[in-house]
Structures are given as C-alpha cells and as structure tokens.
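BUG: 3D viewer hangs when loading the predicted structure for this chain

Environment: internal workstation, default settings.
Expected: structure renders.
Actual: progress bar stalls at 90%.

Input used:
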Amino acid sequence: MKFNLILLLTIFSFCYNQKQLSQYFNYNRTIINNPSPVVDTTPVISWQVKGCAERAVKGDTKFPSSGEYKDYPDLPMPGENEILAEGDSVIYSRFVHHGCCRKAEVSTQLQGKIITIVEFWTGKICKCMCNSTIRSVIQKLPKGEYQVYAVETGTNPFDDKPNSGRDTVMHQKVTIK
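Structure tokens produced before the viewer hung:
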C-alpha cells in the first residue's frame, strides 16, 4: 500500500512539473520560443443614459422639481446629435427633450456591417418635460464601412402598454479605418 502511494506521488510530481508541450509547438510541430498571446477581437458594447430618463420614478428623492435642464448639473450641454467613427469605435450620442417619468434603456445589435442602436422608453408620462442624453459606444470593430441606425421604441407614454412602432431617429454611414 505504501509503495502504491509513493508511486502515485512520484507520477503526480513528474506530471505536475512537466510544461505543456502544446505551448512550445505550433500546428506544424515546429518549436516556437514565445507563443503569441490570444487577442480578443469581440466587439465591446456599452451605453449610458444621463438625465431624468435614468431615474424616472416621480417618488424618487432625486426627481427634478421642474424637469428643467438646470436640475441635472452633470448633464452635458446639448450638443449635436451624432453618430461618428473614432479609431475602432462607433459613438452614438443624442440629446432628448422628453416627458418626465419616462425611463430609457439601450440595446445594440451588430449584424454584419449593420449596427442598430435601440432606445427602449418605458413609463407613463408625467405633466412636465425634462432632458436626457443617451450614448452608446461599440468598440473593437473590424475595419470597414458600417451603416448605423438609431431607433426609438418602447411603451405608449400615456398608458405604458407595449407599442409596436419604431421610429428611426438617426442613421449614418461610418468607416472604421
């Protein structure tokens, strides 16, 4: 029994100390000194909603009393709504003047060379107007020309029931170089 345990420990120690041969050979079985690290080329998608559409509940203690732009000091000044290419990324930015108590979320779909950014608005509208900025960034895109569509959809602002309509709010062709 002791002999089996010693034999097992010796085999385990030998196997543990051996480096994997696959890291030293390429597919032709020739020796390589420094294997290249694998680079992740999967596109990275992020989005952000700033303003009253990020916290749309009127009972929230931070809900603006007037719904005015000045109630959100961290909201950037309204600029140009834009879709632009920068490096390996596409950047979408839109300033929205909308009814209070509506909340927005963003999803992005990439199919081939077509990018669709969907703003999904929910909640019943309150009796005030306010402002929000919606942004989406798609990084690590392969070089090429892309058609980008920004679409607004969601629930009906008066009864919060699902709305089957979709409005294209922006579209543009961009090139990643």
